[in-house]
Amino acid sequence: MSAEQFIKKSYDYVIIGGGTAGLVLAARLSEDEAVTVSVLEAGSNRLNDPMIDAPNNFMGLWDKPEYDWAYKTVPQKGLDNRVVYWPRGRCLGGSSTINFNMFSLASKQDLDNWGELGNEGWTFDDLAPYYRKFEHYTPASKDLDAKLGGASKCVDPLLRGTDGPVQEMWPPTCLNAGYPQPQDPRSGSSLGGFNQPLLVDPITMKRSYSARAFYEPNTQRSNLSVLADALVTKIGFEKGEIVKATGVSFKSGGTSFSVKVLKEVIVCGGTINSPQILELSGIGSSDILQENGIEVIVDNPNVGENLCDHSASGISFAVKDEYPTAEVLLRNPEIAQQAFMGWMEHKAGPLANAPTTVAFLPITTLVPDTTPVELKARVDSLVSTHQAAHPETSVSRTALITRQLFSPGEAAVQLLFFAVGLDRYHSSAAGLFNHSAPGNWVSMVGCSTHSLSRGSIHIKSSDPATPPAIDPAYFSHPLDLEIASQAMLRMVELAKVEPLRSCLKLDEQGNPIVHPEHQAPTTRAEAEAWVRKLTATEYHPAGTCAMLPREKGGVVDSELRVYGTSNVRVVDASVFPTHVQGNIISCVYAVAEKAADIIKAEMK
Predict the structure, then answer these.
(1) CATH number of the domain to which 589 belongs
(2) Per the residue annotation, which of 136, 386, 450, 540 is the catalytic one?
């Protein structure tokens, strides 16, 4: 459909952003033939692009403008003033097209926090049916399960969805280290080490993502219109005490257009673009809007605030020569091409399976030699000191997160394992694993689950093509730095545990050999210095249009409606009031499924 054809119609619902959440809403709302639904997506439609379909080819998409927005943060004071690269999907399907395909779940307390903060209907039990609704779980075969070390033992099929459009499939050192025996995360807790499922279709061995799952099966619906390569510039409003959206302006092929909306505008731009769109439309802090020459429609300084991300701090170890790692692909174009052709022709090889090895660790595992009383005293001291210096920090959210850290079923850190070394000095997102040390390497990465650091995303210009200023403020809260440092020390010790140790090269003292650009820390001070040098994003930003009471920092209410408007909602990870553990795509799908039901209920 051309832009000229698109604007000839008026639509009941105009969805801004055809990403992970936007296409869920488009599919669910257009189930009603009496309703007209449209989607405006800034990127292109790349369905059936083998670069996307190959599950383990995500690094080949980063930094390429046809797939990736290629955002960058402002220099991060907590990371020695380094800039961090934030790849975000720029095509139909959004970031579900370029992510790691890893499927993990929020804990029970993660979502119960949302209810405690004043969001009725948003607890773990409320969202559980929506997780099952989008999910099509395929158990591992007996042979595959044996290769994965009995991974399926930690999954209860009765807790899983089997009829949803999103495909989920399966591709021992942690037990020897004394970590908990895992259970199904859908039960509400996921402590321990295990292989987690991937978002891959077990029949086609292609990436299962939002465009494939929710858009492709519905392309023939006459009441669903999708326009790709259309950059939204602003939402138009009819003014009043409560403003009403009347249309959406956008650019396509260098020409400006606008489309009328009859019922609602639903913003699904993601954690970066949703606050940007609201601010460009006049909803946000009056100071920021006036500074950029934008008329103030709704003054709400909470827009773009509360940015929270999972930080990721890694260390690399040398592997014995008999164990090939991803360096083989990264350094030999001929082998890389053979691997790609192996996937194209046989749907097999290294590009068919993305990383799966993960562990979720409680805070007590990070400091095993500290008593619970000593640990709590240390945490309370860090929190109270920071609160005194930053009185604007949300006391209620801080209290929920610190309480959660001491719950025996909750994780303070997510550990990831990659069969490749890390480049400490990477100058682009795709360069993260392109290090120069010879030989084979593996990396362990410790990721935050409930960061207390809060940053912001705000426009720098009234031009929608200008990227906003992204400041996640990594390690601005001392407890985040403390947890990352302790996780680094634990990763060094984990490398000495069998059977991993037997796969690694050892020095003359019998210790695993670290990457020449790294230095294995032995003290907390050394660990703190190290994580500042090699911490990046885990690609899970959230919270910039928080679902909270307005006086507590909210941008949307519990119906996801933007405060001060009668018919604008936000549906994506930006509405998370507090972060959830692990990879967030499952939570985004569940939020979008619930949002669709909320909107449908109001149709009646």
Answers:
(1) 3.50.50.60
(2) 540
Cβ contact 148:198 at 8 Å: no
Two tokens at 353?
């399976």
* 346 in catalytic set: no
Q: In this structure, what are the phi and psi dihedrals at residue 246, rounded to the nearest 5 degrees?
A: -115, -15
H/E stretch holding 384: helix 372-389
Helices and strands (H and E) in the chain: how many: 18, 21
> Cis link prior to 499 (omega < 30° from 0)?
yes
Q: Are strands 357-361 and 192-195 parallel, antiparallel or unpaired?
A: antiparallel
Looking at the structure, tell me whether residues 301 and 315 fall in a common domain.
no
- The answer on 414 and 361 residing in a single domain is yes
Q: What is the CATH number of the domain that holds 439?
A: 3.30.560.10
Do the beta carbons of residue 61 and residue 44 sit within 8 Å?
no
What does the block give as tokens for 550? 């307005």
The burial class, CB within 10 Å (0-12 / 13-18 / 19+), for 118 is: middle
Last residue of a domain, one of 485, 519, 539: 539
- CA 221, CA 567: separation in Å to the nearest integer? 24
Question: For 321-344, what is each residue's pLDDT tens digit?
Answer: 999 899 988 888 898 899 889 889
Euclidean distance between CA atoms 433 and 442, whole angstroms: 10
**pLDDT (tens digit, 9 = 90+) per residue, 464-492?**
999 999 999 999 999 999 999 999 999 99
Q: Are residues 461 and 533 both part of a single domain?
A: yes
Q: Is 232 annotated as a binding residue?
A: yes
Cβ burial of 461 (10 Å; 0-12, 13-18, 19+) is middle
Residue 225's φ and ψ, nearest 5 degrees, are: -120, 130
- 378-381-385-387 Cα dihedral, nearest 10 degrees: 100
